[in-house]
Amino acid sequence: MHEKTAIVTGGVRGVGFAIAGQLVELGYKVVICSRTNLEIRSALKQLNLHGRVAFGLKTDVSQYAQCKRLVTFAFRKLGSIGVLVNNAGIYGPIGYLESNAPEKWSEAIRVNLLGTVYCSQLVTPIMKRNGGGKIINLCGGGVGGKSSLPGFSAYYTSKVAIAGFTEVLSEEVRLANIQVNCIAPGAVNSSLTDYLIDQGIEKAGEAMYKKTLEQKRNGGDSPQFYKLRRIDHNNFIEKL
C-alpha cells in the first residue's frame, strides 16, 4: 500500500485546493505548488489549521528543472511520494486558431501536458521503490464529450493529449503497482471561470461566454463538491 503522502500541482485554489484539503482530511501529508508565493502562503495557512501537514514550493511545471526541484522537495519533506495529482493547468489563448499567438499556444501545451508528463516521469522511480503509488491526471475541457471547444484549441488539445498519455503510462507502470487514471471534473466554478468571463464575448465566443456566465450564476459546482473517496482502494474523484 502506498504511503499517505501526496503532491498536488496547482493545489492552491479551485479543484486542486479542494483535493489537497480532502487529502489532509484523510490523513495525508501534502506538498502543493503554484507560480506565486502569495497563493502558496494563503493555501498553506488553511491546510495547516490543525497541524503542519502541508508544504509548498513555488514551481512552474512547464519547466523540467523546476518539476525536478518540486519532487526533490516533496521527497525531502514527506519521506515518500505515494500520490501525485497533476492538476496545474491554464486555458492558454482564447479565440480561433488563426488569432492565437504561437508562444501562448505552446505555453498551454507546456503547462498542461508537459507539466503532467514531467512530474509523472519524476515520481515513477520513487513509487516503484515504494512498491506502488497513484497518479491522477486532470483532463477536463470536454474531453470525451459530445463536442469539442472551438476557440480553445490549445487547452482542448492539451487535455486530449493528457487522456492519451494516461492510457499509455497506466500500462507501462501497471506491473509496478502504480495506478494511473485521469478525471474530468466538469463545470466547476473557479478562477478559470472568472478568467473566461473577463475575456468577454468576442474572444470566448457567444455560446461559450453565455454558457459560462450561466454556469457562474446558477449551474456551476463548487470545487468542494469533488471529493476524493477511499483513495486507498480507488483512484478517482467522485462528484457528491
UniProtKB/TrEMBL annotation:
Gene3D superfamilies: NAD(P)-binding Rossmann-like Domain. InterPro entries: NAD(P)-bd_dom_sf, SDR_fam. Belongs to the short-chain dehydrogenases/reductases (SDR) family. This is Dehydrogenase.
